[in-house]
Amino acid sequence: MYRIGELAKLADVTPDTIRYYEKQQMMDHDIRTEGGFRLYSDNDLQRLRFIRYARQLGFTTEAIRELLSIRIDPEHHTCQESKGIVQARLSEVEARIKELQTMRRSLQRLNDACCGTAHSSVYCSILEALEQGPATAMADVDFLNARIYTRAEFIHIPE
């Protein structure tokens, strides 16, 4: 049996994290010492690791509760239920990846459009594009990008 601090160390969390999971009804603390300290078993440690890994994968508290209930009572649940929860999370992750890829492309275009010199930022293409917002910024960045490269080519023409 472990006290809360010992359990926290073994699972690499804080005692407050364990208390939070208890409040969220993901962990129990049925056993107490005579002094009122919570005691936890190896099953509690396993459950805590389950919760931590599910959290790392980005599952919501509600999804973790559902997965735990399936784990606790597997005879009354199917793998299809677990898979459905995982598929929903996977869809969320894939949507977020698409958003991040779009964001990356936009940032790359902003970066490419900027000459990056130590001159005044009065005509900085990044600042101009951010000021205009997403609706027109990318079209203007393409224009500014072409203008900067033209200007750069003009400056570097050998005499």
UniProtKB/TrEMBL annotation:
Please, which domain of life does this record's source organism belong to?
Bacteria
Xref: CDD domains: HTH_HMRTR
Q: Which residues form the HTH merR-type domain?
A: 1-70
A single BP term in Gene Ontology: DNA-templated transcription
Gene Ontology terms, MF aspect: DNA binding; DNA-binding transcription factor activity; zinc ion binding
Arranged from A to Z, the UniProt key words for this protein are: DNA-binding
According to UniProt, the name of this protein is Zn(2+)-responsive transcriptional regulator
